[in-house]
Design goal:
The complex is a heterodimer of chains A (about 240) and B (about 800). With about 240 residues, chain A is an alpha/beta fold. Chain A has five helices and 16 strands. Chain B has 31 helices and 25 strands. Classes of the chains: A alpha/beta (about 240), B alpha/beta (about 800). At the A-B interface, helix 1, helix 2, strand 11, strand 12 and strand 16 of A face helix 19, helix 20, helix 23, strand 23 and helix 27 of B.
Amino acid sequence: MVRMTSAIGKDNSAFVLNGAHLLALADGSLYWPDRNTLVVADLHLEKGSAFASRGQMLPPYDSRATLAALTTTLTRLRPDRVICLGDSFHDAQASDRLPPQDRAVLGKLVADADWIWIAGNHDPAPPADLGGRVHAHWVDGPLVFRHEAEHGSIAGEISGHFHPKASVQTRARRLSARCFIEDGKRLILPAYGSYTGGLSVWHPAISGLFPKGFSVHLASGRSVVRVPGARLLRAA
Amino acid sequence: MTADMTEIDAALPKKFIDWFQQKGWQPHRHQLDMVAADGRGAHTLLIAPTGGGKTLAGFLPSLIDLVSNPTEGLHTLYISPLKALAVDIQRNLMTPVEEMGLDIRIETRTGDTPANRRQRQKENPPQILLTTPESLGLLISQPESFILFKSLRRVILDEVHAIAGSKRGDQLALCLARLSIIAPDLRRVGLSATVAWPDDLRRYISPNADAEEVVTVTGMGAKRADVRLLETAVRLPWAGHYGLHAIPEIYQEIKKTETAIIFVNTRAQAELVFQELWRANEDALPIALHHGSLARDQRCKVEAAMADGSLRAVVATSSLDLGIDWAAVDLVVQVGPPKGVSRMIQRIGRAGHRLDVPSRALLVPCNRFEVLECRCVIEGVAEGTLDGDPHRDGGLDVLCQHIMSLACAAPFRADDVFAEIRQAAPYRSLTRAAFDAALRFVEDGGYALKSYDRWKRLFLTAAGTYEVANPRLAHRHRMNIGTIVEAVTLKVRLRGGGVLGEIEEYFATGLEPGDTFVFAGRMLRFEGIKQTAVEVSVARGKDPKVPAYMGGRLPFTTLLSDRVRATLADPSSWAELPDQVREWLNLQQWRSLLPGRDGLLVETFPRAGKEYLVAYSFAGRNAHQTLGMLLTKRMERLGLAPLGFVASDYVIAVWGLHAAKDMAVLFDEDMLGDDLEAWMEESSLMKRTFRNVAVIAGLIERRQPGQEKTGRQVTFNSDLIYDVLRRHEPDHVLLQATRADAKGGMIDVGRLAEFLARVKSGGIRHRRLDRVSPLAVPILLEIGKEAVYGDAEDQLFDELAEELIEEAMRIDPQGGLPL
C-alpha cells in the first residue's frame, strides 16, 4: 500500500547548540546564520581515483559531484566564511589528482570566501596552493570546530570524521541516510563527499560520545528530517 | 523401454553388459541412444524426466571410451548447478564404476575442496572431475588451465535447463567456449528435464551456437501423473497466501501416505505451514522442515532422514526442487499455486519412482483466484504444455568478469577473444561495440573522462596483446569470480545454543530487541546483533509480532496468465470448479463483466469516501508493482489525487480522491517512456539491480567472510556510485547492463510492455459500478497486508517527516496542552 502525501519535506532543520542557532541542511552541510558561516565535513575529494590506483575503477566523477553540490549551496547562501572540518582530500596526493576542470571550480569557491581548512587524518596538511587558511581547530564564540570529537563533555564542539548514518523503519522499507547527530552540546556532521559511506550512530565510537542520548537530522539530499534517537533502528 | 540383445552387444563393452545382467537390468533405450550418438561424434542433449538412469546415460560414453582407450589426464568434466554435488552421483556413477571394477579415478572440486587436494588435482588430475560452474570459472582463470584441459574429451552439463538462460548459465557458456579453444575435439553432453524451448538448449550446448549441431535424445516420457485439487471443509478464503485453512486435510493426507513432500512458495510460508502441521500432529508423525536459510547441517540431516525413509513428510521450498531422488516419496502436496506448469511438473517428478504407479500430487489453493490458477496448472500438466521464456542475451556484467578471467589465464588479442565469445550461445549476437565497451571497462573502468590511464588493469603490449597489469589484481579477481550475488546474511544463533541458519541482513536490521518471529520451526525472540550473528532466544506464545521474513515470491508465468484469462472468459469451462468459485464468477458476470481473454477490464467504484480503480491486468506481481508506481504518478498529474495502490499476480487496485474517467490515457504505452525513466532513477530496486551488476562486473568487491566495517575503515556504498554514474555517464556499460536486467526480475518492464501492447490491441472496457464487484473483493482485502517494495526514497522521507510532526503536535485529549 502506498500513501501519497503532499511534499512537506523541507531543506533545513533548526536546532540550538551551546546557545548558537544552527541549521542542518538537506545536502549535509551546516549553516550558522548569525556568523554567515557554512560548515562541511569529510569531502574526501578524489576518493574515486584513490581506489582506481589500487585497481578498483570507481567512476572518476566523485569530486565533480561533490563540488557541484557544494557550489549550489554556496551560490544560494553566499557565506562569508566556509569551514571544512578535515578529510577534505582523500589522501596527500588527492589535490594533484584533481582533474583541471574540478581544480578550477574549487579554486574559485575558495577565493570567494574566508575559507578555513581544518586538518584531518586523511589530510594532515591540506594543500597550500589552493588558497584558504589551515588550522588544527577553530574557535568562534560558543563553538569550537575540529576534525574529530574529543572525549569528555565539550560544550559547543562541532566535528566530522565519523560519517554518521542512521536508519528508520517506514511503512515500505528501512530508510537509511547520512545524518547530523547532536545532543545540544556537541554535534557531528555527516560526510559531504559523494562516495563517502557511513558508520551507524549506534557504533560505540559515535554513541559513546553522547552518553545522555541524542537526536539525529537525517539528510536525504532533498530534505532533512529531525528524528529522536529513540525512534531509530538500533541495529542498523 | 528396452533394446534387443544384439544392439546391446554392439553398443556396450562386455564388462558393462555383464554388470547390467548381474543387476538384472536392461539398459534403457536412451542410454544406448546416447552411446550411439557419441559413436557418431555428435554433441547430445538428453531430455528425460528425473530418475530413469539419466546421469548414467550421460556418463556411459565417457566410461566406454575410458575402458576402450585408457588415458591419463583429465578426460571428462561434469558440471552440476548444485553446490552440494548431487548425491545421485554416488548411486549412478561411483557404484557402477566400482562394481564393474573400472580403473577410473573420479574426484570432486567445489568451493569446499581443501587447498592441498586442489594442488594435487592440478599436478595429477583425475580422469573424471565433478564440479560447479563457479569452480570451473576459477579454473579457467588460471594459466595452468591450458595444460589441465588439453586432454579433455567430454563435458557433461547436468540439469542444463536449470542453468541456461541465467547469469550462471552465461558464465558457464563462456567457460565452455574457452574449453573448446583449449580442446577443439571436446564433445558436449547436456542432461535436461523437458523444456518449452528445446532448440534454445541445443543452441546453448553447441560449441558454435548452432542448434543443428546437437542431437536430441529423448528418454521415457513423463510418467502419468494424478494431480487433483485438495478439497477442504472450511469455505475458501477470499484472500491470503499461506493456505493454513487446509492444514487438517493436508495432515490427513500425510497420514494416508508413506512419505510426502509439502512444497510451498516462500520460506515464510514454509515456517508457518510447518508450525501449524506440528500443532495438528496428534500422532507425533516425524515431519521436518527444509529451506535454503536453514543451517547446512540441519538441511543435510533432513535429507538423510528422507533418504533412509524415517520421515513421513517434509515441508520444503524450492530448496528441494533439484537433487537426490527419494524412492519412498509417494505424494507431493503443493500449497499455493506453483506459479508455473513447468515447476509443477518438476515437483511432481519428486514423487512415485515406481514406474507402475502414477505420481500423485495435490494442489492447495489459498484463495479463490488461486483456485482458477491451480485448475489451469492441472490442465497444463495434463496437456504437457510447458512455460518458460526463450533465453535472453547474455549479461554484459558477466562478460566483463569473464574477460578479466581470460586475461588472468594468459595474454590475449582482442580479436581472438571476441571471436571466442561469440561462439557462446548467449553472446552469439554480441556486437563489437558492446564487446569493446566491456573490454574498456575491464581495462580502466571505460569512462569518458580519461583520468585513470596511469592505473590500467590491463596493459596493452607492443605485440598487441592485453595482459593483467600485476599479479595482485589477478589474485583479487579470482576471489570475486561467480555470478551469484547473495544478499548479505547474518547467522541466527540461539543464546546458549548453536546456529539455526541465516537470515538476510535487511530483515535483521528491521527488528527491535523483543520482537518475535518464526524461524527454523520455532518462535524466537530477537535479542540483538552481536558481531555478525543475530542473537535470539526461544519465545513463548502463539502469534509472532513480525509475521516472518519475506522470501522471493515469483510472479506466475505468462502461460498461466493466458490460461487463467481464457478460463475466466469462458463460462463453459467452469464445470470443474468448486461451487463457491463458480457462484463467485456468476455473481461477477451479473454485477459487472468478466475480464476478457484480450484487452483489459477496468472497474471504478466509490467506497467509504474514496474512489477505487481495479484493473484486471494479469501481468504478474512484479510488473504490477511497477505499473502501480507509474499509474499513481500519472493519476497525480491528472489531478485525481491517488492515495495508494495494492497489487497481486492478477489485479491492481488504486484508490484516491477522484474517479478516473479516461482509461485510454491512463494505460497508454507511453507510460514506458519518460515516466518509467523518472521512476527507475529513484527506485531502490534499480539500485539493488545496479549493485548486483557492479559486483559481478568487478567494480565492487564482494564482502569477504569475516570482513567487517570498523570505525576506521568506512567503505563506500553502491547507491552513491549509481547516482554519480547515472548523472555523469548515463550510457556506461554497467548502466546498460542494469537496464537490461530491469526488463525481467523485480521490475519486469518486459512483461509490463507486453501487457500494455495487449491493452492497445484488445481495447479497454471500463465499468462504472456503484460498489465493489465480487471479483474485486480479494484485492481490496490485501490492502494493508502487502508491503510495497521499491518506493521512491523522497516520498518516504516526506511521509516520515509528516509522521514525526504529527507525533510531536499530537494533543493529549485527556491532559490538554502540556504547559
